[in-house]
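Supplementary Data S3. Sequence and structure tokens for construct A.
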Amino acid sequence: MGGTRHPAVIELDGAVVEVPVDDDAHVAPSRGAGGDRWRTIVGPLDLTLRERRVTVVGANGSGKSTLLRLLNGLVLPSRGTVRVDGLDTGRDGSAVRRRVAFGFTDPLSQLVMPTGREDVELSLRRTHRGRAERAAAAGRVLDRFGLADLGDRSVYDLSGGERQLLALAVVLATDPAVLVLDEPTTLLDRRNTLLLRRTLESLPQTVVVATHDLDLALEADRTLVVDRARVVFDGPPREAVERYVALTATP
């Protein structure tokens, strides 16, 4: 699973996510050709991401989480296209999701089995058909993340940091090309945040992270600032964080 690999190429070409708006909603919608009212959640986005580490910062409701969900087809664009290594998230959804793993803020959203070992085995069911083979592979995954001693405990008996690492092990078990994480440190204390950051640093995958943790945001090759559904800055992490801080200081 380790070693070097080329970063994935993620392309967003005019990607827009819109939702219909009720007539009594207090928003400023646009109007479609048929007179329907729509609200833009994010976009238009014209981006090509080739870096190994990309972070995304923005206020709650800015559209950054929707941007992340576009990358593996959890959300499809209303207009435009999203491609990962040439695979279209609309036409090639299953193939994209095999290449792009997604981690949610709350690890309990992903840990659906009674124990971590069972969750890892569930993740491996397509790539390891035999029960014994799958169990052995799950053991190797748990060993890799230092979770072997926790694999047979109830996920509800684990700390927040242990759950987050376990959820990470589950989504990485099949060795995807891209890991997308939405606010992975929100529920963690500083010790577990630092542990998660060290784990992310060691991964060979392309990693895209949305975060309010500005220290984590700086640990990237490129940072996007999202504000009011648009990418308003795209560039070096330190400059991006300075831009974001300035935006949040404005009433």
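Construct B, processed identically:
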Amino acid sequence: MSLESLGLTHDQERVYRYLLRTPHADPDEARAELDLPRLATVLDELRTLGVIDRSLVPLPPAATVDLLVRHQVERTSRELARLDAAFDVVRDLAEEARRGRPVELVERIEDSAGVNRRVDAMRDRAETMNAKPLPRGRHHTEEATRRYRRRLADGLVSRTLVGAAALDLPEELAYARHLHGLGDLHRVTAEPFLPLLVIDRRVAFVLLEPGRSDTDALMIRQPGIVAALVALFEKLWERAADLDGLDLSATEARVLRALAEHDKDETAARALNVSLRKYRAHVAALMTPLGATTRFQAALRAKERGWL
């Protein structure tokens, strides 16, 4: 069986097989032996796919096939989501015929129950991006866990961004870790952001009053606006810390953010609404785990770790 059926090009497969046969291959010798002038480009492509590492060491065959199958599943899911957009057009046309007017690309929905009904109706969604800066106040049940695990196993790609303040409550941290363990990847940030839900990069939900969970929401299907919200989520996600690697508290995350944003201790303490003495105690406590001797160095190393 050729690996081309799993997404590799002819040249990529040739190079991968050569590296399996020739450990510690010299690139110049490989280029000559394979008669492949564009070898450097193919190697970069294989590295991007994760099939080889920087030292030209290939993944074992079983791991490679598993990886390529997962890539194919992800591509198929994205393609199915794109094709599913055709049915959105059918629904829009039917709705226009029923209402006798064009379907709105930005629609106001009353209360969270209405939002939940709209989201639940999108049963075949392939990807979700969820930004949750506030505590969710939810508790998982065994039945909900089973349903969600099945959807993730069926290919749902879900990422959830949570605010550091939301994890001050032990039950919120436990809930985040529970979903993260199921495959709904969670990251944590101390940056301020607004609640947001994006489905399949085509539909977005935002609250009209971000500080309230019971307020009306907007369902947005205007492509330009949705694309901008997706880009915003991706930037926040890139800078956030993975929940598995989180080894600082929500309070420490806020102190680090204040340390990076304010030049004076007095200003930072006011921003955190704590006394100057307490703020300095927090900063001093962070110096050791960061291996820092100055506050500038502490902020720099926190950024290197992805804490800021």
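The first helix runs from residue 10 to 21. The CA atoms of residues 17 and 50 lie 15 Å apart.
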